[in-house]
Write a structure and sequence with these properties.
Layout (H helix, E strand, L loop, with lengths): L2 H14 L3 H20 L54 H7 L16 H21 L2 H4 L2 H10 L4 E5 L5 E5 L8 E5 L2 E4 H13 L7 E3 L4 E4 L11 E2 L5 E8 L2 E8 L8 E4 L24
Parallel strand pairs: 7-10
Antiparallel strand pairs: 1-2, 2-10, 3-9, 4-6, 5-6, 8-9
Length: 296
């Protein structure tokens, strides 16, 4: 090797450290030099330093760092195609989702000790606004008009957010105080017939979609919000809910709207009674209230 190549090798050793292979070759070279010095009677020029040296094992400093495997708890799963959208729908267990969804909303029970003076003031203003609106409109016939209902749906939307619920999976929470008997949110989805709803429900199970959001409007019409809905589909069931669902008619089209039964505070979860029909296979209820029926 040339002097430059020799210096490059030494620089790499000083920079990256000694590994096990380097250590073996160094010891082998030392032993060969000692043997040569003994055979020559230590008369070889430049070999006098061997009398003052002894071999001492050096600590390995260049340790190989194997590539760490990605653990499931480090984040969402890796997709073979590189995109989650290209792989369609597949079931994800609740335990797996909890690894990377660390959102815990504040329950209304935790807010009981907080200062509610500001919330009560806002609710009072909302009730006063409703009374002024009713006085200005006048008769109950105008109150049931399509124009007023359409105005409430489009221009009087409440500030809501979805997050992890203590009842079940996801839930919907209020971001502003909501007075009683106010329109909270419309249940938006695709209007389908009963036969189509039965076919989709079976297909959703085959695709691994654990929760299908089918809301019955009447005997012939069902709203499917599984793939084209809004935040209303995240509302959980409760045996003592703070909201209720109502079917209204706007321009000869039936819509499902969620109304508040009582005043709702900030960060309080929106709930209503699903009122499922009595069946043999009952779905257990997890609302945890004192008057819980035990099933949906």
């Amino acid at each position: 090797r040339s002097e430059f190549e020799q210096m490059t090798i030494l620089y790499d050793i000083w920079n990256s450290g000694l590994d096990l292979e380097d250590m073996g070759y160094l010891r082998l070279t030392y032993e060969r030099l000692v043997a040569q010095a003994r055979r020559a009677g230590q008369q070889t020029s430049g070999a006098d330093w061997l009398n003052d040296t002894h071999w001492v094992h050096h600590t390995i400093t260049n340790l190989s760092t194997p590539k760490r495997k990605r653990r499931p708890q480090d984040g969402p799963r890796e997709h073979q195609t590189g995109s989650a959208r290209s792989e369609g729908y597949y079931p994800i267990s609740k335990k797996e989702k909890d690894r990377y969804l660390d959102v815990c909303p504040v329950s209304a029970r935790q807010l009981e000790g907080a200062d509610t003076q500001g919330t009560n003031r806002v609710l009072s203003e909302r009730r006063s606004e409703q009374r002024r609106l009713l006085s200005a409109i006048g008769t109950s016939a105008i109150m049931d008009s399509d124009l007023l209902k359409l105005n409430q749906l489009k221009f009087r939307k409440k500030k809501l957010r979805f997050g992890r619920s203590r009842i079940h999976e996801w839930g919907l929470f209020a971001m502003e105080p909501i007075a009683a008997d106010e329109m909270v949110i419309e249940y938006v989805g695709q209007n389908i017939r009963q036969m189509v709803a039965d076919m989709r429900e079976k297909r959703y199970v085959q695709e691994g979609i654990g929760s299908s959001y089918l809301f019955r409007v009447d005997h012939d019409t069902i709203i499917d919000a599984t793939k084209c809905g809004n935040l209303a589909r995240f509302i959980n069931h409760c045996c003592t809910p703070n909201c209720y669902a109502k079917v209204i008619t706007i321009e000869s089209q039936k819509k499902i709207v969620i109304y508040s039964k009582q005043p709702i505070g900030v960060d309080e979860e929106i709930t209503y009674d699903y009122k499922f029909p009595l069946e043999d296979n009952k779905i257990p209820c997890l609302c945890g209230t004192e008057s819980c029926r035990g099933s949906l």
